From TrEMBL, chain A:
Residues 682-698 have a biased composition (Low complexity). This is AP-3 complex subunit beta. The keyword Cell membrane does not apply. It comes from Hucho hucho (huchen). Belongs to the adaptor complexes large subunit family. GO terms for biological process: intracellular protein transport; vesicle-mediated transport.
UniProtKB/TrEMBL annotation, chain B:
Keywords: Cytoplasmic vesicle, Golgi apparatus, Membrane, Protein transport, Transport. GO terms for cellular component: clathrin adaptor complex; cytoplasmic vesicle membrane; Golgi apparatus. SUPFAM superfamilies: Second domain of Mu2 adaptin subunit (ap50) of ap2 adaptor, SNARE-like. The keyword Membrane applies. Belongs to the adaptor complexes medium subunit family. It is a peripheral membrane protein. GO terms for biological process: intracellular protein transport; vesicle-mediated transport. Part of the AP-3 complex, an adaptor-related complex which is not clathrin-associated. The complex is associated with the Golgi region as well as more peripheral structures. It facilitates the budding of vesicles from the Golgi membrane and may be directly involved in trafficking to lysosomes. InterPro entries: Adaptor_comp_med_subunit, AP2_Mu_C_sf, AP_mu_sigma_su, Clathrin_mu, Clathrin_mu_CS, Longin-like_dom_sf, MHD. Its main location: Golgi. This is AP-3 complex subunit mu-1. Residues 176-417 form the MHD domain.
């Protein structure tokens, strides 16, 4: 009796202790000392983490929500609030105003965190407030806040589904966002709120495809899976063989010739939609992601969308994932299992990667077995079977049993090895392990059923083993075999039945049932020997404890023992019981799994998970493709007149190429009257502003003296110029075939030309939009550099120069023009390029110059990929006798190609670039002496990687200007700036 | 997406829970615990469990179960990958991932989890970003914290998340600027009884420890990049550059990270550094058997093979072992039937040998299969595939960094069938 009060007091104590602790915490939270509060909050969060209830403290905690002092305390309070607000709605409302205030904070991170907490408080009353906050955040300046708002959309939606329409509007808005930070989150929201609104994706499809590589890894997974669904609704099937071909032949059969001709255009060969191709192309690099989920999602995208012959590029990456964690292996193997059933060839070369190790987990082993079985074919079956032989001996008996089933499947699938397998299985019957024997019996039974004629030996063998086999399923299988093929073993079968009659009562139910079956079959075929035995067994069965057995016995008795009442049926007994039975199909458990999209949860659990979105079938006819076109307000396309560098003759080929590509565009340029007026306008102003340009206007090719003159002239405008700001908000029209300049551009332009030849001219004054379009250079410096002096070159002298044309050979290369002159007195033979360093250097060599006569010179072109660095390219210039090490050093400006974009695009691009750049401190502001009434913009991209480089020159005060360089190429940016500064300083 | 997370120890106690949406009762774990009871080994618990209302996706790592609760369709790998990131994050912060460590740092772990997901969708999983928000503990800092009552939560707001290179934090400064790279290769192999290679391949990892100030832009090139058959990269690596020139160009994260993993073409012959002569036999009578294992160097490229260890899972019917090792020492755990022979360095002159008798439980039949041997080994200063780093260049910063590359070859899943 004493122990019970002891118990009670102890539990009371625990309770008291808990409440005392809460009191303590409450006191601490209400104290004035921040450190005490903090300590208390830490303990409270600790309680939450352990899953203990701390809701009592709500009033005490919520008071601290507005704590100004420490960021830390605030964060912990937020954690608490989000956890318990749902339970204490009224009190939670007290905190709302704090968050509303924080939503207006100048710091983007505070705004974001306020929105995050506000939207996590699951209190229905504040839905309107949340809605408002989300809407505002969706148009926030900061992409981070916009990202948070995308997350908040899902939270609000789960709280109140009535907001759907309003939320869709926000999603629509955010889908247009160009920030990579937002893309993943908003697509997530889209998938959760309105996955059926595929129309919202059209306009953003190409953008999403292009952004994909730069989106954070988790967002990539979500976007890829959404785009997979999208593509299946918008494009036609690339798997032409099955669909189109059959249809065609059918038509040929049914339709008259006339109709066929009418329908002919329909049967034209399949052309993949460029957007479809874009998706495939842009997801491919992600196969190299370190994130296994990303790799898997690309793999499933290829599986569901790519033409059959392209799917196999994912194989390698999937096999790579098998090196990852066990759980990853599990999922990947499941997917491979599904794939390998349809496409054996995909994984066959990697068969060895699926070999089982004794250390693998059970579920991994059985999946590998599954895959090996699917991959087995005539060619590799012997290897597979040898491998299976080792597995059968495994200590893990469940796995060994699985292997036996796998052998059975191989035996049925590949008829060549059926006999070998069967013999192997028969050998296993003498195995010491019961499970192995049992499984073998079952599999043999299935195999024998497929070819019953030849195997009476095996049946006899099994009958012999019967006494030693104790596993019920195996015994039952043998009995069934005896009965089914009793005519082939007429002597043994009755003997087995005799034994069974003896042990009937102690057998398992399944064995009893088969004994009854055997008895019945024998009675029908060999009643003389077995009549008594059968009757005995039927009598035993009649009084069995199990319903089924009593039932079966009754049924069998009525069926086989003829009596007066049911003579009709017993006539057919033989046909009923001994009807030929179809062989069981041994097939994979993964056979129909691919009805679910690969990589999904539904695929893994093989049932439809809630929220699973079906992948639709390909449409027969592609929906309108133009829906994906993004309307760009077609700005006037501008192409820069190429200042032919007169210092050295440009070969016809080169020039011809650049003109021919440019000229068609020129026609478009001047179709609009707007453009014309602008041309006029600017040409006027350029006349006013600069003589040199008007000169250049007159002649399409400048003479050397002209350009020199220009240089001279443009050194002065600092003092004398007032420039008309034209084309402020339109694209800047800088030049066209007849070179005309927009004044402001020209101004800076010419200034730059004069001051900074190596750099600026490579960037083009702006115009057009994405995709980045390379335009001709605005200025080509005539300066040529010595490559090889005639003294060191033993008479061969070489000079190089950058013509600043897009390279013919490869877009990533910079073209270099080399003039070779023979200053010696004998002809030089076989001038060519030899070894280069660094060895990886990508050079397109010029054709070997067979012979160069004395005093003759020749100009050749080569392409060098500098990888966007100013590192010199070293190589050897060889003649027949000698070789000379030479090096070409590009200036920063030589590594850019001018591009055209609209001002709008420029600003957007700038916004995105400056973001990273700003943070990374790549963004440089320098004040320089420049005069220009409007900001001038120059756009270019690096040759090798295609990174955009944007330069803005802006007037700040009367005598100062601001140069901003936006680029992700930090090094290039700073070098460009350095060169610019130098050049301007000289000016 | 991810609804809740439970951390469960091997005995089935839930010691941490975190919910990112509404609270899910921990009774949902019962389904999991049931499955765990059924499984023989913790590794055998199925990673995905389907319950009437939820889906449970779990990983088993460092003797802990990370169990996440899912309510709607989500790619399972997405969840699994994330759970591993959680484990890696704990490891990264506290030096190890274990129940005690999590319990000791409960609040911090909870806060980290809070930052990692928003509404169940990953928000900040980069260690560099997290460390800016929540500073990892150091001894000094914890002393200061206890004295002053401050905490490890950073006062600065994370800027990394805002940048297009979220993996690197801003304003990194070191007095010694260093960049070290470890090329670690693992040989996965299955050898059969006769010593023939059934299957062999090389998997490599280039790990990095980069402590460089500012925003360095690094380029790492290999002498023989053709060897690499399949690769995967840290997000910092510029894929296009790799595609076109086979060099790794990247702005590195600060601190330790895995730069790339690769796979060496299995079609080429893989050098197997050791050979194993073994004979394990059991007497027909079933009373016992003999074991004789010798390990010797094979293709070692002139390097010493170290850290050699042979692990054998003996059959369950073994009662005891009586062995002698000519080198190193062996341990045998009768509970798990695990025989571990720690050899150490391989001496080609005097090959280590382990031999002796095995006795079986009375009346037990002769074991059907001989146990396979798992080999562990290490070779310093050698990448067995022959991969070599050519050079490392740095752009974007002025100082001269100290650079270093280390090679090491290990046995991965190296199994000898007997």
């Amino acid at each position: 009796h004493e122990s019970i009060p002891g118990y009670i007091s102890e539990s009371c104590l625990v309770y008291k202790r808990a409440s005392a602790m809460n009191d303590d915490l409450k006191e601490m939270l209400e104290s004035n000392k921040e450190s005490l509060k903090l300590e208390a909050m830490k303990r409270v969060v600790g309680l939450i983490a352990k899953g203990k209830n701390a809701s009592e403290l709500f009033p005490a905690v919520v008071k601290n929500v507005a704590s100004k002092n420490i960021e830390v305390l605030k964060k912990l309070v937020y954690v608490y609030l989000v956890r318990y607000a749902e339970e204490q709605q009224d009190l939670a409302l007290l905190s709302i105003s704090t968050f509303q205030r924080a939503l207006k904070d100048p710091n983007q991170l505070i705004r974001a965190s306020a929105l995050r907490v506000l939207s996590s408080i699951r209190v229905p009353i504040i839905v309107p407030i949340m809605m408002l906050a989300i809407k505002e955040a969706a148009s926030d300046m900061s992409p981070y806040v916009r990202k948070t708002s995308a997350h908040a959309i899902q939270k609000l939606y789960s709280l109140d589904q009535d907001q759907k329409d309003l939320l869709i509007e926000v999603i629509e808005k955010l889908l247009k966002d160009k920030s990579t930070l937002v893309a993943g989150s908003v697509v997530m929201a889209f998938e959760e709120v309105c996955p059926d609104r595929i129309d919202l994706i059209h306009k953003n499809y190409r953008k999403l495809c292009n952004l994909l590589v730069d989106v954070e890894e988790w967002g990539q997974v979500v976007i890829i899976s959404m785009l997979t669904r999208y593509a299946r609704t918008q494009f036609t099937s690339p798997w032409k063989e099955d669909g189109v071909f059959d249809e065609h032949s059918e038509r040929a059969f049914y339709e008259s010739d006339e109709e066929k001709t009418r329908n002919e255009p329909e049967a034209k060969p399949y052309m993949m939609d460029p957007d479809h191709r874009l998706l495939l192309r842009n997801t491919k690099p992600l196969l190299q992601s370190r994130n296994t989920a990303v790799v898997m999602s690309v793999a499933q995208l290829y599986w569901h969308l790519a033409p059959k012959n392209e799917v196999s590029i994912v194989t390698k990456s999937l096999v790579r994932l098998l090196r990852s964690h066990r759980e990853v292996q599990y999922i990947v193997l499941q997917n491979i299992a599904s794939m390998s059933i349809q496409r054996k060839g995909m994984f066959e070369p990697y068969m060895k990667s699926f070999y089982v190790r004794s250390t693998d987990a059970t579920h991994i082993k059985s999946l590998k077995l599954e895959i090996l079985t699917s991959l087995a074919n005539e060619a590799n079956i012997s290897t597979v079977l040898r491998e299976f032989q080792t597995y059968v001996k495994s200590q893990d008996k469940e796995f060994a049993a699985g292997t036996i089933q796998a052998i059975g499947r191989c035996a049925t699938n590949i008829s060549e090895v059926t006999d070998t397998c069967l013999n192997g299985l028969v050998l296993l019957l003498s195995n010491r392990d019961e499970t192995v024997v049992a499984e073998s019996v079952v599999v043999i039974r299935k195999l024998l059923q497929t070819q019953p004629t030849q195997h009476s030996d095996i049946i006899k063998h099994m009958a012999k083993l019967f006494d030693n086999i104790t596993v019920p399923m195996a015994r039952a299988s043998i009995l069934w075999l005896m009965g089914e093929y009793c005519e082939r073993v007429p002597k043994i079968a009755p003997d087995v039945l005799r034994k069974m009659a003896k042990s009937f009562t102690s057998e398992e139910d399944i064995v009893k049932l088969q004994t009854v079956n055997l008895a019945a079959k024998l009675y029908l075929t060999n009643s003389k020997q077995t009549k008594l035995l059968t009757q005995y067994i039927l009598n035993l069965g009649k009084y069995d404890q199990n319903y089924d057995i009593r039932d079966r016995t009754r049924f069998i008795r009525q069926l086989i023992v003829p009596n007066d009442k049911n003579g009709a049926l017993s006539k057919y007994a033989h046909r009923i019981l001994l009807a030929p039975k179809p062989a069981p199909l041994l097939e994979s458990a993964y056979k129909d799994r691919d009805r679910y999209q690969l990589g999904t949860l539904s695929h893994t659990i093989n049932t439809k998970a809630s929220g699973y979105l079906e992948l639709s079938d390909w449409p027969a006819v592609a929906p309108d493709q133009s829906v994906r076109n993004v309307e760009v307000i077609e700005p006037v396309k501008i192409h820069h007149f190429i200042f032919p560098s007169t210092a050295h003759p440009t070969p016809a080929l080169h020039q011809g190429w650049s003109w021919s590509t440019l000229s068609p565009k020129l026609q478009i340029n001047f179709s609009g009257s707007d453009a014309e007026s602008r041309v006029e306008n600017s040409s006027q102003s350029s006349e006013e502003s600069d003589e040199s340009s008007s000169q250049s206007e007159k002649s399409s090719s400048e003479s050397e003296s002209d350009s020199e003159k220009k240089k001279r002239k443009t050194k002065t405008p600092l003092q004398k110029k007032t420039v008309k700001p034209t084309a402020k908000d339109g694209p800047y029209l800088s030049k066209c075939y007849q070179p005309t300049f927009c004044s402001s551009d020209l101004f800076i332009f010419s200034l730059i030309l004069s001051v900074c030849p190596p750099v600026y001219s490579a960037l083009s004054p702006l115009s057009l939009s994405f995709p980045l379009q390379v335009s001709g250079p605005a200025f080509v410096p005539e300066k040529s550099h010595d490559l090889l002096h005639r003294m060191t070159g033993k008479g061969l002298s070489a000079q190089y120069q950058f013509p600043r044309q897009p390279c013919l050979y490869q877009p990533t290369m910079v073209s270099v023009q080399i003039s070779l002159t023979n200053t010696s007195d004998h002809p030089l033979e076989q001038i060519h390029i030899g070894d280069r360093s660094p060895t990886g250097l990508n050079i397109h060599c010029f054709n070997t110059v067979e012979c160069l006569e004395p005093e003759a010179s020749v100009t050749v072109f080569m392409g060098i990929d500098f990888n966007d660095s100013t590192q010199a390219a070293n190589f050897q210039l060889c003649t027949k006798e000698d070789h000379f090490s030479v090096s070409i050093q590009p200036a920063v400006g030589d590594l850019f190609l001018p591009i055209t974009m609209t001002e709008l695009d420029f600003r957007k691009e700038q916004g995105e670039l400056s973001y990273s750049v700003n943070y990374k401190k790549y963004h440089n502001h320098y004040l320089t002496h420049l005069v220009s009434p409007v900001p001038c913009r120059f756009a270019g991209k690096t040759a090798s990687s295609g990174a955009v480089v944007l330069v803005t020159v802006e007037l700040r005060e009367s005598s100062t200007a601001l140069i901003t360089i936006n680029t992700e190429k930090s090094v290039m940016g700073s070098m460009l700036l350095r060169d610019l500064k130098q050049a301007l300083a000289q000016a | 997406m991810i609804h809740s997370l439970f951390l469960i120890n091997p005995s089935g106690d839930i010691f941490l829970e975190k919910h990112w949406k509404s609270v899910v009762s921990r009774s949902v774990c019962d389904y999991f615990l049931e499955a765990k009871e059924k499984a023989l080994e913790p590794e055998d618990v199925p990673p995905v469990i389907h319950t009437p209302r939820h889906y449970l996706i779990s990983i088993y790592r460092d003797k802990l179960f990370f169990l996440s609760v899912i309510q709607t369709e989500v790619p399972p790998l997405f969840v699994i990958e994330f759970l591993h990131r959680v484990a890696e994050m704990i490891q990264d912060y506290f030096g190890e991932c274990s129940e005690t460590v999590v319990k000791d740092n409960m609040v911090m772990v909870y806060e980290l989890l809070e930052e990692m997901l928003d509404n169940g969708f990953p928000l900040a999983t980069e260690s560099n970003v997290l460390k800016e928000m929540i500073r990892p503990p150091t001894i000094l800092r914890s002393v200061v914290n206890t004295l002053t009552g401050t905490s490890n939560i950073g006062d600065t707001l994370p800027t990394g998340q805002l940048s297009t290179i979220p993996w690197r934090r801003a304003g990194v400064k070191y007095t010694n600027n260093e960049a070290y790279f470890d090329v670690v290769e693992e040989i996965d192999a299955i050898l059969d009884q006769s010593g023939t290679t059934v299957f062999a391949e090389i998997q490599g990892v280039v790990g990095a420890c980069v402590k460089l100030s500012g925003m360095p832009d690094l380029t790492l090139s290999f002498m023989n990049p053709r060897l690499l058959d399949d690769v995967s990269f840290h997000p910092c690596v510029r894929y296009k550059r790799w595609e076109s020139e086979r060099v790794l160009s990247f702005i590195p994260p600060d601190g330790n990270f895995t730069l790339m993993t690769y796979h060496v073409n299995a079609q080429n012959l893989v050098a197997i550094p050791v050979y194993v002569k073994q004979s394990i036999s059991f007497f027909e009578s079933g009373s016992g058997g003999r074991l004789d294992v010798t390990v010797g160097p094979k293709q070692t490229m002139g390097k010493t093979v170290e850290g050699v260890m042979v692990t054998v899972h003996l059959p369950k019917t073994i009662l005891s072992v009586n062995l002698t090792a000519t080198q190193g020492s062996y341990t045998y755990d009768n509970g798990t039937k695990l025989l571990v022979w720690d050899i150490g360095k391989l001496n080609p002159q005097k090959l280590p040998n382990l031999r002796g008798s095995l006795s079986l439980q009375a009346g037990a039949p002769k074991p059907e299969e001989n146990p396979s041997l798992n080999i562990d080994l290490k070779i310093q200063q050698l990448a067995i595939s022959g991969l070599k780093v050519n050079r490392l260049d740095m752009f974007g910063e002025k100082y001269k960094p100290f650079k270093g590359v280390k090679y090491i070859t290990k046995a991965g899943k190296f199994q000898v069938r007997t």
